[in-house]
Write a structure and sequence with these properties.
This protein has 169 residues and is α/β, with parallel strands linked by helices. It is 44% helix and 8% strand.
Amino acid sequence: MSTEHQKYCLDANVLIQAWQKYYSPKFCPDYWKILDELGKQNRIFLPKMVYEEITRTEDELAVWLKKSKIPEYKIGSNVAEALKNIYAVNPIHQNLVDNTKNRSLADPWVIAHAISEKATVVTKEEKITATNTPKIKIPNVCDNMSVRWINDFQFVEELNILFTCSIKT
């Protein structure tokens, strides 16, 4: 699959977990430079709700994101229409947002923006396969809506991102 013109819509957890765990800028600064460059090329983007979810906490990731070149896509009529369609296709899609804990508020918008932009969703969430649960995750809704989704490791592989290591002197 050619990814030359493919756009990627990033879920918040892709940046948060990478920053806090396996791609920390303390030992993997090039990953963040690559993301910045991909943002400048308009190959990756964040829905406004994801951007706000990350930047409402004034931590190092928020500071980096505010300075980055990753575009923040606002909600337009196409995105709003896509969201209405997501909910119309299957009532269980409303379970994507956990209102009791005020969590996952951006999740439906990630999918709606991806639909609007014909983008691939990049998320750390995993598909729920149990049939006896009302829970649903981004991958489930993406599959139901025929939206392509991948995790961040697939994203790295798909874009041929190459990591090099050295000892800091």
